[in-house]
Amino acid sequence: MWAKKIVFSSILLLAALTSNAEDQEENKGPWSGNTTLGYLATSGNTESKSANFEFGVNYDLVRWHHGLSGRFFSSSQDNDATAENYQLSWSSKYDFSEFNYGVGRLNWQRDRFSSYDYQRFATLAYGRRIIKNKKHELDAEIGGGWSQSKTIVNEDISEAIFRLYGEYDWQITDTSKFSQTIQVSAGSSNTFTEAVTSLRLAIVGSLGLAVSFTYQNNTDVVPGKKKTDTITSIGLDYEF
Question: How many whole angstroms separate alpha carbon 149 and alpha carbon 159?
Answer without folding.
Answer: 9
